[in-house]
User: Fold these one by one.
Assistant:
Number 1:
Amino acid sequence: STGWFQCEVSYALCPPVHAGALELEEGTTMTTQRIRDFLATRRPDGPCLVVDLDVIRENFHAFRHAMPDSAIYYAVKANPAPEVLKLLAGLGSNFDCASVAEIEMALEAGATAARISYGNTIKKERDVARAHALGVSLFAVDSHEEVEKISRAAPGARVFCRVLTDGEGAEWPLSRKFGCVPQMAVDVLVYAHQLGLQSYGVSFHVGSQMTKVDAWDSALADAKRVFVQLAKQGIHLQMVNMGGGFPTRYLRDVPSAEAYGKSIYQALRTHFGNQIPQTIIEPGRGMVGNAGVIKAEVVLISKKSDNDDARWVFLDIGKFGGLAETMDEAIRYPIRTERDGDEMEPCVIAGPTCDSADVLYEKNLYPLPLSLTIGDEVLIEGTGAYTTTYSAVAFNGFEPLKAYVI
Ligand code: PLP
């Protein structure tokens, strides 16, 4: 992910950013001084993501401090850059992986197989076998069929069953694709036990960018019911995987990791009393989102008629270049410009490709400075998670998003 080849050339072409010029309000910008300094001297011609490892380190410590009794399994899908994985492996993180490729990346970064969970409920049997051969022994399921695959390809492994949540309050909900109803989770875990697997626990994901700190409560109530039903059949579960969902600050403030920790601990006490099982959290967005900033450029500003409808601002990055989470305008990134402070005007923002779906914000117009001009640089903040991995390989001939880790 780290490529420096165009740096000298682009430095010669682009004037440096003036420190502080891109700040909207004191204290709200997520562009760290290190990212600013980096962009001031070394800039490729196209859009690029710059990730500051110091921010990720701080996030890791904040999670550990807020939820000291929960094991952290970083969701690799959020940002699998080798430098990020290596940092987190060194800090003692475990890893939630969605594929054999992600498992290999986590191992490469220094994690042992014992610190890896194969958390995708949809796996090919040969991938289960491959993960098992690599030493992974913890697998997610949400169906009888998946249990059968694991019993054949990873005999004796530990499994946890994912239950559905309603995703209410999440800006990027994940269910119904993953999980089953709690009663079915009971059946699935009994079946796993019968097939010689270790029925180990229950998991859920409250939905990504969950801004309600109490969203874990009802899912933990469901988890407890599954524990009780299985105990009646002599199967004693040991673990609750409470997933991700911890938010990144985009345009609005979000509660702190500590506030989530307190609320989750309260819910665990309410439902499990003095017998709180082992718990896991799988932060993705909350671990890396605020560590990244994308530098992009204004390619065109135009209107669709002479009447005073909104101006269209076309950037050199769009939905297919890494900003896929603007789908349905779900995630609204902070966009900083060198002209912040000037009079603002609501605009449509679109990407550069010839696909009409490549519009970032249109239903809800986005305020940008009236003085914004073709060729201006913009900084798109909060883009450390779910960007590089969504970037298409040369759709319309645009290069995939470059990434620098500093
Ligand atoms: N765990 C699992 C199983 C997931 O599927 C995801 C995201 O899709 C995560 C954790 C990370 O979620 P978030 O980025 O909301 O923290």
Number 2:
Amino acid sequence: MRIDIISVLPELMESPFRASILKRAMDKGLAEVHFHQLRDYGLGKYRQIDDEPYGGGAGMVMMIEPLDKCISELKAQRDYDEVIYLTPDGETLNQKIANTLSIKNNLIFLCGHYKGIDQRVRELHITKEISIGDYVLTGGELAACVLADSVIRLLPGVLNDEQSALTDSFQDNLLSPPIYTRPDEYKGLKVPEILLSGNQKKIEDWRHDEAVRITKEKRPDILE
Ligand code: 6GU
């Protein structure tokens, strides 16, 4: 998978891809992330990328020309499956969206800033709009990292068996059951007997029941 990220602040996104699981995915060639500085496509001597909104009002608008130049240049090099605009008014990211995107080859992420983008960029290029939750960030960059992480970890070969994504919370509309490791007792707190029993069938049943109980308690909204 290749992800091209367009932003006025690419520096903000470099470290997440330089550590741990995402780094290994890059090193193994399973994912490539390329950053594009929107200002390189800006207009005039000051490389302008934003301007005041027609009709007045507070805040600046990301101009169409720099965005169109940048996206068109990328599209001329390869076919993209989606051009995703990261914006608080997008569809809220969930595991299903991450799963769907993880089977694509080439994605563009556009990080929003200021009041947003000229509406015509949407008409020309944007195929999907994604938000990471109902709160406002200073820009789409951190959201782009969250989206990229949620997708890249699903690519075949990125996680090993112990980290398997199949048992993740949300993957089957259930939160994860409680987990424990050594010691079996700490300050009087004991690991549930059943997990020490060696009876795999009973353990799996217990885990499923606990997952249902915890989901009902914390997130009844995700239960089917
Ligand atoms: Cl994608 N962008 C910004 N600026 N704020 C957000 C967001 C995105 N998702 C949640 N809040």
Number 3:
Amino acid sequence: MQLSYRPRYSIVIPVYNEAENLAELQRRLSAVMAQLDGPTECVLVNDGSRDTSLAQMRQLRQQDPRFCYVSLARNFGHQIAVTAGLHHVRGQAVIIMDADLQDPPELIPEMLAAWRSGFAVVYAKRRQRRSESWFKRLCAYGFYRVLRQLSDVDIPTDSGDFCLLDRQVVTALNAMPERVRYLRGLRSWVGYRQTAIAFERDPRYAGSVKYTFRKSLKLATNGIVSFSQVPLRLSTYVGLLAACVAIFMVCLILYWRLFIPNSPLTGFTLILVAIFFLGAVQLVSIGILGEYVGRIYEEVKGRPLYTIGETAGFETISARGRL
Ligand code: UDP
Ligand code: MG
């Protein structure tokens, strides 16, 4: 079964082991899609799930031709899964949301209203994160503010990937060749008229968090390294500071030696502290440098962003070229 019309709205949903959520997701999405004033497609991106998610997607597709799917050949991570979805969507307005129903689909009509009034990017801003642990809330709070300070691009705080993008923005994002993708930043980088809608982020409908601490840390590092060069300069500043401290200490030692007999200073401890301090500064600097060099290496390899196992619902694309 094929859609015989070109969808006006597209919804991209990355899915990684979300079998328990898909039925409820379909139920709530169908209710929302029924209210929309134009044809809608829903692009599910299977990010290498190991549960029955893919089988459920095939079934969903059979029941409702508005659901299409792209199945990646392995787990490539959330940001790449969304990117794969953006490469496939055909709508004029594209909504990105999670599969765990933490992003309420009922917000979509409100986002579309803002889009119709002329905004190219409508992002959802979390009012509260009651459902998450205090540690995660603290990290997120700190991270968004540090990133904002460090970055030249105005990246809004407390907004995740739940957003609406105009076709113009999707085209701009799809033209970006970079492999390390921090979509929240790229979305701000493109410019255009942007606005926020505040919302309460619900707890997960079912299943466990797929963004492990390691994945979150990687996302945060990618965000900072992709959008700021301040960490690179940091080592220069710390180096200068260490030089000032060293000069001050030389003066202090000279003063003690020349004017204070039997000074309490023991050279050994001082040297040890200095060695440890400078060693630490140097290692951290090399580490920071490594983060950037690693990304250059990643980009230079020029591998494709992802590999696709199977797709369904995009046959019209290959027949007629990209819509
Ligand atoms: N996800 C994904 N690949 C991954 C990890 C997560 O596609 O490697 C998807 C997941 O299925 C969900 C969304 O990304 O739809 C957000 O994940 P999660 O709910 O675990 O993160 P959080 O809500 O804590 O940001
Ligand atoms: Mg979630």
Number 4:
Amino acid sequence: MQKKIVLLPGDGIGPAVTEAAASVLQQVADIFSHTFTFQEKQIGGAAIDTFGEPLPADTLQACKEADAILLGAVGGPEWDRQPPHLRPEKGLLQLRKGLGLFANLRPVKTFPSLLSSSPLKQEIVAGSDLLIVRELTGGLYFGTPSERRDEGQTVVDTLHYERNEIERIVETGFQSAMLRNKRLASVDKANVLESSKLWREIVDEKRKDYPEVAVEHMLVDSTAMKLITNPTYFDVIVTENLFGDILSDEASVLTGSLGLLPSASLRADALGLYEPVHGSAPDIAGKDIANPLGAILSAVMLLRYSFGMEKEADAVEAAVNEVLQSGFGTQDMQVKPESIVGTEKMTSLVIEQL
Ligand code: NAI
Ligand code: MG
């Protein structure tokens, strides 16, 4: 297959981890006889420095024409004092909005060799493997009015959803469950919120199209408890924007290793934006010590969700597992001092294993 991938390295450690992920993708293309073309574009602080804006029109256009987008990270202290429209993060928000990416997917999986990195007891986290599907472009963060009244002493935020916005994210939840262990927890607050009642109705309609998926309605507060007391309970969680924001950050600490976590932002067609969960880590930029695995596992999601390349995705994931199983890790992971490797070495270990 021929595929066009836009690379958005961004700032800080972004370029190093993006390069790592791209070289793994190139190896996949070589092994499985695909042709991947890579086009590099600017975003974030790097784009502000060169073009005076965080998301140049040329970058957005290239992304619209791509089959998939791989992003490093944006931001850093150099741009902290810029006005809001000249902040690196603005570029990322504009990109998600400009492409209509309404579904954010964050998988969290514990690796057997890294259980001691978790803040939770090993017997609780062992075997955790879950995916949070969060609605990204609606709900409380975008509803209007959102304002202060009565000289600021009254405040209003609006939780607004249209039926079609709920339908498409719920659909993504079911499709994700079909790609995994076919268990879906739909998380809401239907005992209080009107929006959650419509959410439940839609989930109950859609489940008829997915008879193989076991569906459970759960309330967000008890889900929050269960995520840390019994994380292996979950396969796929689908939820609205605010709940998903909070639950995905909660889930991200289960593994104890931020540098390992990937994410995807998707829409109804195959185009997706893939990026590690971590930021630009300016404290370690340029030192060849950043963990490239969050970016490499984001490339695994890219293969799976945008290209439908299941066996290629499985192969990279297995290679990463193998490398971790051999005890290797970057400095942010809890491995033996003699097994600590840098960004480039970790990447070449994965490529060799592949
Ligand atoms: P951060 O995720 O960049 O760093 C937090 C800590 O984790 C730091 O100590 C860092 O060294 C470490 N770390 C992060 N990724 C790592 C990796 N791959 N390997 C090894 N260690 C890693 O978050 P922080 O420090 O809050 O933000 C730094 C900058 O990144 C800020 O400008 C922030 O706005 C931006 N940011 C960007 C995001 C994005 O592009 N999606 C997400 C989060 C933050
Ligand atoms: Mg958050």
